[in-house]
Amino acid sequence: MITVTNVSLNFSGTTLFKDVNLKFTRENCYGIIGANGAGKSTFLRILSGDLEPSSGDVSIPKHMRMSVLKQDHFVFDEFSVLDTIIMGNQRLYDIMKEKDSLYAKEDFSDEDGIRASVLEGEFAELNGWESESDASRLVQGLGLGIDILYREMNTLNGKEKVKILLAQALFGKPDIILLDEPTNHLDILAINWLEDFLLDYEGTVIVVSHDRHFLNTVCTSIVDVDYGKIRMFVGNYEFWYESSQMIQKMLKDQSKKSEDKIKELQSFIQRFSANKSKSKQATSRKKLLDKLTVDELPTSSRRYPFVGFTIDREPGKEILTVDGISKTLDGVQVLKDISFRMNKGDKIAFVGENEIANTTLFKILMEEMEPDEGSFKWGVSTSQSYFPMDHSSFFKDNDLNLVKWLSQFTEETTESFMRGFLGRMLFSGDDVFKAVKVLSGGEKVRCMLSRMMLFGSNALVLDQPTNHLDLESITAVNNGLIDFKGVLLFSSHDHQFIQTVANRIIEIKEDGTINDKACTYDEYIESAYS
Fold first, then answer.
1. What's the CATH code, domain 27-50+175-302?
2. Cα-trace Rg, the chain
């Protein structure tokens, strides 16, 4: 258990949050959410003891061991992979090293023998004899071969290091696990394995994540960092979002009788708590929901940008034909004889581990790159708009403010129109006069989406449009693309985003060929990995 009592944090005279009082208990998983910059990761650092609060305290029973997902991918470069994973239980690692040092002594004394005996007993209590096999199970679960255990950390690539540091955080049955964005850079199978691991885990998990599918699967409660307050609500992210939206709508609808509102909310709670699952986390969540009252539902002041793409005209029958496109980059063939026909109503998600392949195809279709072989043709009734994954050229060394920057892309350039348009994307007041070159990553994405919304295109090409966005903006983009009446080609790592938007999946495989299926993302995963 972690008990947070009257915790506040001030940075340079600004209060990030204050008077936080929470309890985190075993067999529960807590998802920390909030806008970018709200203090989610900072709060996690306070819980881990890495950062002292300005006031208040965090209490953890002394016998409980906490494990934290490390963010520095280079700190363990001088160690082997096996040692790095075992360091997840620092006491066990220290015992192993002291034992090795004692047994290596040429003048092994009686005192050394007594000390070695004590260490051997503690080593056994900490399951030290199973440490290598436990590490092996973790790396295999994350999709790595067991031979990686005997390599040095400095020989691994970035994605391999991410998995090893995650294995370190999960090693040795810690009582408490703190995870900051654990699904970043993980493949589908590794994320599924991590979800299953946490669902069966009996301790306390606290996680910061922008992955809504992950939060929905594993979380029993949501911890909302919002406007200087941190509050805890029962349920996963979907329950938090839908209940907060429902309450906001009911508060605006004053004509509805309060009794009717309460009945509707109670019905909503029962519907969510009726979801059955054998997993420990889901069972715990159901117990919490069963005890929930209407007064304990979230009333969030969270603001969501408006993302909506209108089309100037309906596309005809001929949308897009791709015929035998191939492309080699730096001696590696990323696209090989790719052919497909896009139909009216298609919303195609491009998936696969090779991001470069997706980006290359999109650049070819938007005439920013020439194919080595093959051709493509857009229908005459289509108009295209493109969101490139690397959009830095739109902002680099650009002294224009937001109003003038956006005015480049529309004939309607009055300040009132621009202010109204930017206001819907959460740029208000003096924010609209900021130079675009100083905007954050998330703000630049919202600018690029605003630009696309002005065009009225009926065919959108979006390469990782949710990168750098907070959950509110991701949800807004997600909803906007669900409602979009045109055709769509996009790539994303967001499971729920793909599942709720796409009606067709094209996987670009490692050899550059494609696997094309008219199905949902969940159906694709089931067929591809079952």
1. 3.40.50
2. 26
